[in-house]
Amino acid sequence: MSSDKSQSEAENMLSFKRYFINNLDSYHGEYVLRELSKVLEKNAELSTKPTSITILAEDAEPTAPRPPEQLYEIIGTVSDSKVKTIDNVARIITKSECLPNMLTCGTVVFDISYDREELQIAMDYLKLLKELLEKQSVAGANTADFGDGDGESKKRYLILISTVMTWASTKPLDPDTPDLPFIETDFRKRKPHPNYKIHYDIENEVVGIARKYKTQIGALVVTTGVTYGGSEDVLFYWFQKAWECEKLLPILGRGGNVVPLINVLDLAQIIYNLITDFPKKLYVLAVEQNIVKQREIVKPLGRTAGSGMFKCITKEDAFLIPEINVNIIRIVGQQRIYDLMTVNLNMEPTFIVETMALQWTSELTFAENVPALMKQFKKERGLKPFKIIVYGPPIVGKTTLSKLTAEAYGLVYISPDTVAQDMLEDLTWRVDHWDVGEFAALPRPTGEEEDPDAANTDDDLGDEEGVQETARQTLAILRSGRLLTDEEIMGSL
């Protein structure tokens, strides 16, 4: 009984060796936890730490045994209530009880970039934290008087993971040079997208706390770009449809907008580096140095794993895509995926490059990384190609069975008897689509609505000219009735 009581008291006391992460089972949470688990290795060092031996005289008063040393531990919340245990996590806290537990943690990593339900928890926590810090400040309290410490820094730390959407409406720094990138010191000029004003307010609260209570807490905001890698999050729909060889992979609008990206492994490494060596910074941009447009995200996926065909769609059509609509509903009705894929921001991560000297997961561009990323995606999602051969004597229903099976499993039906006709129909469709153009569904931009990157939307046509020319030549041969050579068939495929 006494052991349970002492454990409960320890859990309710501030520990600078206790770390909190919200939504441990989320896309970001899993990778941040994986990196942050490195701090648990220090527990092994504590277990091998030599203990001092004191020899007492016969008439000396017996002294109380020294309490056991506090171990490093990670606690946090989960988005799926069915999750009861996670490796390397000491306790999973319910969201209704997380606020008092967060106040007992020396370091809090709180992510508001994904789930909008976390916004209220973040605001409530910041309110309680300010009240606590204010009381300690007024009373002249020293945080070293609380918790275990034991050689560790007697200071709280807070890292808020936010989104680049708090910059989405920021005007160019120089109207004459609209491509001039934003850097960390420009954060005071940032203007949020209308859907992300609460995120913006929470960021400002964290910055305000960091400035006012800098002797008691280290706090900063990490604004993350669109994360990718592993099982995927925002880009999941495009990875999935490319793998399924969707006939036309959609591009939202003209696709000339610059989308800040970062590999989720790099984001997790940035968080860990900040925790182990907390800087005197208020704001950090977690984005890659490579400038990547939306088209340069979607097209490499389609060409590497998909049909290689694309269609630019309007905002209204984007919201009719079931997979995107499901995600929008899940994130409390907000247009999260659409907003992130249509943002237009050029950002330069000066701190993580110049000061942190981050070791990037890959120095390659997103397009160059697509084969490796697709391989990771298939592994994480457990995706495997499904190939079926139907063999048997004539007139037993092979064709009917094959077509029904292909339709049921979303497979491509191929028959030796119809392969030439199928190729003819496919090439005819492709050439017709190229003739119409992938921008056909979009209204012609005029006046103020003109896309600032419209002049650059055709910058990848050179890559497609060879593909289109080969397809047109093959189509002409098929229409002439001449049989294709093996080389021509492989070239067309």
Keywords:
493 residues, alpha/beta, Rossmann fold, 2 domains, seven-stranded parallel beta sheet, two-stranded parallel sheet, elongated, NAD(P)-bd_dom_sf, P-loop_NTPase, Adenylate kinase
- CATH C-level name of the largest domain: Alpha Beta
Main beta sheet: strand number and arrangement? 7 strands, parallel
**Class from helix and strand fractions:** alpha/beta
CATH topology descriptor of the largest domain: Rossmann fold
The portion of residues assigned to helices is 40-55%
From the N-terminal CA to the C-terminal CA, the straight-line distance is 72 Å
Residue runs with pLDDT of under 50 for 5 or more positions:
142-147, 328-333, 452-457
Shape: elongated
Protein name: Adenylate kinase
Organism: Diatraea saccharalis (sugarcane borer)
InterPro entries: NAD(P)-bd_dom_sf, P-loop_NTPase
Could you explain how this protein is built, in words?
The structure is a single chain. The model is unreliable at 142-147, 328-333 and 452-457 (pLDDT under 50). The termini are far apart. This protein folds into two domains: 10-44 and 69-381, Rossmann fold; 416-492, no CATH class. 41% of the residues lie in helices and 11% in strands. It has a seven-stranded parallel beta sheet, sandwiched between helices. A two-stranded parallel ribbon has the order 7-9. The protein contains 18 helices and eleven strands. The chain is elongated. The protein has 493 residues and is an alpha/beta fold. This is Adenylate kinase. It comes from Diatraea saccharalis (sugarcane borer).
